[in-house]
Predict the structure.
Amino acid sequence: GAVVSQHPSWVICKSGTSVKIECRSLDFQATTMFWYRQFPKQSLMLMATSNEGSKATYEQGVEKDKFLINHASLTLSTLTVTSAHPEDSSFYICSARDSGGRNEQYFGPGTRLTVT
Amino acid sequence: AQSVTQLGSHVSVSEGALVLLRCNYSSSVPPYLFWYVQYPNQGLQLLLKYTTGATLVKGINGFEAEFKKSETSFHLTKPSAHMSDAAEYFCAVSAFTGNQFYFGTGTSLTVIP
């Protein structure tokens, strides 16, 4: 089956630094990827929709200047948390839509971010 | 607009008992419905999905769900709970399989030995 990877799987950073999370579709092309955020014991909330070659679409309340999304190729989208603060600590999950005809969506394993 | 409501944030069942996790949805278009399971500190694993066709959908690990349009429901069931079923379960809706998902708040399933 289709596989989506995320790197790193977990990261600890100091407050004020930036962290980049990668989302890769390993065996299919994805013109669209989605970024979700999950706080402990809560559901997944869509942050933004990432489209290859164009600007991401952010959900209401998500700061686009804080959460920078780059979808530079058909297999890679990155989420950069800029000037991270402890309240940004969360589980970030991406999903990728197979643009090869099946139009299925596959989720990555998630990245645990802890900001100290 | 689409949304999902999962009734019961916590469900406890005895090992071997019936599992029933409830999901109701709201959608302005024909919905695609999904159930995912999440183990601690892990990503989502697809249990089953409904797109079109047969309303009773069978998934992995003995789970199944029935799409009932009249009730706007997509409840998840398993005849006999196993200890390994203890996890967080999320119901989700989308306009089609490749569109953004809207997740319910999740149901934590505890299986009592």
Q: What stands out?
A: Chain A has no helices and eleven strands. The longest strand of chain A covers residues 44-51. The interface with chain B takes residues 6, 32, 34, 36, 42-46, 49, 91, 93, 95, 97-98, 103-105, 107-110, 112 of chain A (CB under 8 Å).
